[in-house]
Every structure is written in C-alpha cells, then in structure tokens.
Amino acid sequence: MITVKNILGNKGAHVVSVGPGATVLEAALLMNDHKIGALVVTEAGRLVGIFTERDVLRRVVGEARNPTATRVADVMTAEVVCCAPETTLEEAAGVMKNRRIRHLPVLDGDGRLLGLVSIGDLNAQQVHAQEQHIHLLNEYLYGRV
After folding, report:
1. What residues pair up with 88 in beta bridges, in sequence order?
2. pTM of the full predicted structure?
3. DSSP 79
4. Phi then psi for 123, rounded to 5 degrees?
5. Model pLDDT for residues 37-81, shown as the tens digit of each residue
6. Which end of the chain, C or N, has fewer beta carbons within 10 A?
7. Number of helices (H) and strands (E), helices first, in the chain?
C-alpha cells in the first residue's frame, strides 16, 4: 500500500511557507513565483494555518480587501486538515474529496511539518501506477520486447 510518506520521498519534503504577519500581496507573489496554489503558514516552526488560492478569492477579492494592507493571519484557513506519513493515498484522496480541499500538510506525531501533498501529487502517483500496470499486462500478453 502506497502512503503519503512514499510521495514525499519522491517529491521531497520542501514546503514553501509564510508567516502570519505577511501581507496577502507578499503571499500571492510567493505563490506565483513558485507556481503553487497554497502556502503553509508557520510561526516559530509550527503550523498555524494554510493560505490558498481559494482564500484569496473568497476572503480577499470576494470581500474587497486591500491585499497590501491585509495580513495572511486575517484571511488564512486556521483549521487545517492534516495527515500522518502513514496515511494511504486512498485515505488522503478520500479526505480531500470529502472536505473539498486540494492540499494536505503532513505532520509527524509531535506536530512537526514533514511536507505537503496536493491532489496533483496523488493524481500523478495514480497515473504512474496505472502506466506500470499497463506495461506489466503488455509484457504478460505479448512477452518482453
């Protein structure tokens, strides 16, 4: 059974983060620079929230807030859904589907941030597994080429 830990092993544990005191503009520019849809919000090395594209649309643009004056802490999602490294991909995908989220921070037993997995990471892993399965079936049916 493939777990979130396996995905982090392939993609790496680097997570782009921002502090709660950063402005929305700073956070949005950071997301653009890294071509990502979410930032983990940390304070003193601990996870305190997540700031996503959805937060920008709903809580900044939708409420006509000034991105240069609004702090991430005021518009981030503070109740973050997380998972453990041992979480299976099926469990992670189910949580994402049921909670309608696209990013899951991965925390160890002590609450330390180990990484972040996205729905794109899960989809890429599923495609890779299907391609391998198809390759093995072709070899079984037609022999090795």
Report:
1. 3
2. 0.86
3. S
4. -65, -40
5. 999 999 988 999 999 999 999 999 999 999 999 999 999 999 999
6. C
7. 6, 5
